[in-house]
Design a protein that fits this description.
The protein is α+β, with helices and mostly antiparallel strands and 415 residues long. The protein contains 14 helices and ten strands. The chain has a six-stranded mixed beta barrel. It starts with a helix and ends with a helix.
Length: 415
C-alpha cells in the first residue's frame, strides 16, 4: 500500500504540474515520458521500429532514385539535343538499306530540317596486333560526330577531307580491346577492318549512352560514310540523325519526316523517334517502377504499423494500474489517449528519421553503382516524416482508445 501511495502521489504531482504548464511545455513533458516508456522495453521497441525503418527507407530510395533517373535522362537528351530525331531504317527484301542521299537532301524536301547525318552500322572483323574481333563499324559523315555529341580523347575526329581516306576514329572500349601489353592503341597506328587497312586518327572519350544514341560508340569504329559499303559489304544506311528548328513541334516534325521517307523509300520500314516520345515512354516505365516500389514500401509500413500496434497494446496491458491511478487523480480519457498516441508517434517518427537516413544511403550507393550524379530531392524528407507520423497516428489510435476506455476501478485491481 505504501508503494501504491507513493506512485499515486507522484502521478498527482505530475498531473498538477502539467496542468500548470503552457501547452508547449506539456507536449515536451509528454514526449519525454513517451521516450522513457519506450526505452524501458528496448528489444520490443527495436522490433517495432524495424518495419517502419524499412518502409520509410523504401519510399525515400524510390523517390530519390526516380529523381536522379529523371535528371540523368534530361542530361542525356540535352547532350544530343531535344530538337533531334533518330531514324531507324530496315533493309529491303534484297538486303539493301536506305539510300543515304535521301537523308542528305532531306532539308530540301522537309522545311524545318537544318542538319542531317546518315549512318551505316554493321559488324566487321577488326584486328590490330592481336587476333580478329567482331566489332561494330559505323560509317558516318563529319556532321554525325557533332550530332552524337562525341568527345575527343586523343588525336582528331573525321573531317570533310577524309571522304576517300582510310582513316578511323575508335571508341574508348575498342581502344582497350585492341591494346596489347606494352602496345596500347594510339593515333597513328593501323588496324585492319574487313579486308582494308585503316589508320587510327583519333580515340573518343567514354560516352554515356542515351535512348537517342543509334549505336554504342564506346564499342565502335567510326569510318567515313563513303567507304562503309566497300568495307563492310552493307549497301545503304540503316540509321540517321536529323536536327530541326527548335521552335518547331517535335511530334509534327517526326510525322513529316516519316511521311517523306516512307514516300521516297516505300520498300524500307521507317521508324522515326523524337525525344518527346522517348521521354513519354520513360515516364511510363518510371511510373510502373514507382508503383512497384511504393507497394513494397507500403507493405513494409503496414507490417511496421502492426508491430507498433502490438507494442502499444502490450504497453496498455502492462500499465493498467498506472492508467487507473492517472484516472483516479483526475486524468480525463483524452489525456490517456493523448499519452499513448504520443508514444506511438514518437516511435514511428524515430523509425522515420532512421529510415530517411537509410534511404539516402541506398540512393547514394545506387548512384555510385550506376555512375550517376547524386542529387537529393528535398521534398522526400517531409514525405518520409509525414508517412511515419501518419502510421503512428493510424496504428496507435486503437491502443490509445482502448487505454482511455478502461474502468479505473478494474484497472487499479490489475496485477
Amino acid at each position: 500500500m505504501a508503494e501504491l501511495s507513493a506512485i499515486s502521489h507522484r502521478l498527482r504531482r505530475i498531473a498538477l504540474m502539467i496542468r500548470g504548464l503552457p501547452s508547449k511545455s506539456a507536449i515536451t513533458h509528454l514526449v519525454s515520458e513517451a521516450v522513457s516508456n519506450l526505452l524501458a522495453h528496448k528489444q520490443r521497441t527495436l522490433l517495432a521500429l524495424l518495419g517502419i525503418v524499412i518502409g520509410t527507407a523504401s519510399v525515400i530510395a524510390m523517390l530519390s532514385i526516380g529523381h536522379m533517373a529523371q535528371l540523368e535522362a534530361i542530361g542525356m537528351f540535352r547532350a544530343v539535343g531535344v530538337n533531334t530525331l533518330l531514324v531507324n531504317a530496315g533493309q529491303t527484301q534484297l538486303g539493301i538499306g536506305l539510300d543515304p542521299s535521301l537523308i542528305t537532301i532531306l532539308p530540301e524536301r522537309v522545311s524545318g530540317v537544318t542538319l542531317t547525318a546518315p549512318i551505316a552500322i554493321a559488324q566487321a572483323p577488326v584486328a590490330n596486333f592481336g587476333p580478329e574481333t567482331n566489332i561494330v563499324v559505323a560509317g558516318l559523315p563529319p556532321a554525325g560526330q557533332s550530332l552524337l555529341g562525341l568527345g575527343l580523347g586523343e588525336g582528331r575526329l573525321l573531317t570533310s577531307f577524309d571522304t576517300n581516306n582510310h582513316v578511323a576514329v575508335i571508341g574508348a572500349e575498342v581502344a582497350i580491346k585492341l591494346s596489347t601489353p606494352g602496345r596500347p592503341a594510339v593515333p597513328g597506328q593501323t588496324l585492319r577492318v574487313g579486308k582494308y587497312v585503316y589508320t587510327i586518327v583519333g580515340i573518343l572519350k567514354p560516352v554515356t549512352l542515351s535512348f537517342m544514341t543509334a549505336l554504342d560508340v564506346n564499342n565502335a569504329v567510326l569510318i567515313p560514310l563513303s567507304l562503309s559499303a566497300g568495307t563492310t559489304g552493307q549497301s545503304g544506311v540503316n540509321a540517321a540523325f536529323i536536327r530541326f528548328d527548335p521552335t518547331l513541334d517535335a511530334d509534327d516534325m517526326s510525322r513529316r519526316v516519316t511521311e517523306d521517307l516512307t514516300r521516297q523509300a516505300p520498300e524500307n520500314s521507317i521508324n522515326v523517334q523524337s525525344p518527346k516520345q522517348l521521354i513519354a515512354a520513360m515516364k511510363k516505365q518510371k511510373a510502373v517502377q514507382s508503383q512497384l516500389l511504393a507497394a513494397i514500401g507500403g507493405i513494409s509500413l503496414l507490417v511496421g504499423g502492426i508491430g507498433v500496434m502490438n507494442v502499444m497494446l502490450m504497453s496498455v496491458m502492462e500499465r493498467k494500474r498506472e492508467i487507473g491511478l492517472r484516472m483516479a487523480i483526475g486524468a480525463a480519457p483524452k489525456d490517456i489517449q493523448g499519452m499513448f498516441l504520443t508514444e506511438a508517434v514518437v516511435l514511428t517518427l524515430t523509425g522515420g528519421v532512421i529510415g530517411i537516413a537509410l534511404g539516402l544511403v541506398i540512393s547514394f550507393v545506387a548512384a555510385s553503382l550506376w555512375a550517376w550524379e547524386f542529387s537529393l530531392a528535398l521534398y522526400t524528407l517531409p514525405v518520409g516524416l509525414g508517412l511515419s507520423a501518419f502510421a503512428g497516428i493510424v496504428f496507435g489510435f486503437f491502443p490509445a482508445l482502448k487505454a482511455s476506455h478502461l474502468n479505473p476501478i478494474e484497472a487499479l485491481r490489475a496485477d
